[in-house]
TrEMBL record:
Protein name per the record: Ubiquinone biosynthesis O-methyltransferase
Pfam family, one: Methyltransf_23
Annotated coiled-coil segments of the chain: none
Name of the gene this protein is made from: ubiG
Entry function: O-methyltransferase that catalyzes the 2 O-methylation steps in the ubiquinone biosynthetic pathway.
Organism listed in the record: Sphaerotilus natans subsp. natans DSM 6575
S-adenosyl-L-methionine keyword on record: yes
Amino acid sequence: MMQNADPKELAKFSELAHKWWDPESEFRPLHQINPLRLEWIEQCAGSLEGRQVVDVGCGGGILSEAMARRGAQVLGVDLAERSLKVAQLHAMEAGLQNVQYREIAAEALAAEMPRRFDVVTCMEMIEHVPDPGAIVEACAKLVRPGGWVFLSTLNRNPKSFLFAIVGAEYVLNLLPRGTHEYAKFIRPSELASWCRHCGLDLQHTRGLEYNPLTRRYWLSGDTSVNYMIACRKEAQ
């Protein structure tokens, strides 16, 4: 199986791996939006207590740990080895026994564990891989009939270029320069099409906005820059 990953992207996140759990580091935005993502996931899918969850592209485990703290049995997967080691160490120090991590591609995991999970999350990841559609397909294979798939990414339009790259990386310095590549941004219509092709029914869409003056994030109906979608696999 060809590995659906960009070596430059893996190297970039590996270099930053030691900063994953520093809330004032380059990963500060992820720490700030994590409670919003977690609450929205539970609003859509219901309580995570006792649910089997896989977090695809888990990085240092920020969302994985949060879902584990809500009572889910969580498997976090990624291909950045150093990030996974940071995630494993943090979970061990926190005494969390219901979150595990594996260095494995989403497609390989889908072949190994099809229809195994109640909830699949893949946040801020598909815009970093060569074939995002293949990741969506893997997520669809991993989820059980009736289960939920949550995806988040960046819209592709002039506003998102201005806000997510020029603003976030060059003006406000919220993210390291070069974090995102505009050509890899994904329109909601494109993502929805991939989901439908894989047998996932789009249920909800939410946008994520940021006020640089108050330094506050919130969820809204504006999907023009950052957005999340919730899909459900047909029950059989």
